[in-house]
Amino acid sequence: MLFGVGAGWILGEMRNHGTDPAKRFGILRERVEACKEIWTQEEASYHGDFVNFDRIVCRPAPLQQPHPPILVGGNGPKVLDRVLAYGDAWFPNRIPPDDPMIARVEELQLRADEAGREPIPVTIQIPPRDPSVLERYEEAGVTRAVHMLRPGDAADSGSAERKLDEWKERIRVYTGE
Asked: What is the value of pTM for the model shown?
């Protein structure tokens, strides 16, 4: 299992669901820390400003050790800090132009190295069509690219099949198979 988290970006929706947007990053951090406690301790407790519980047991525990990889989503100015603080991987939306995005992947890897960490996996969403640009992402540290099938595509089987055929061809060109 991959466990993706993000603080959110639609502020009005957050307020509608009872979350103060100004506190969302602290809430996210504490919830991730609490999940790690629950997943790694036989009997877990956590006490923070937003998450607070005593002695709970979670069974079955995740099979992955020490816990499922936590992919921190986001593209904001401090997302790399969050990835390094409590994430196992980064899951940004690919937003062109590509050069600044690739530079951020490189910055993450440099900062991970400086912190004594192994290279941090990066998954980009909506990869570039140009195989040479995707190769640059890979060289920078991107380990996975995922495509998005939008609801309208899924509702129209012809559209979904066209998208899947397109992706299959792009993968074939990229891998040279």
From this structure: 0.88
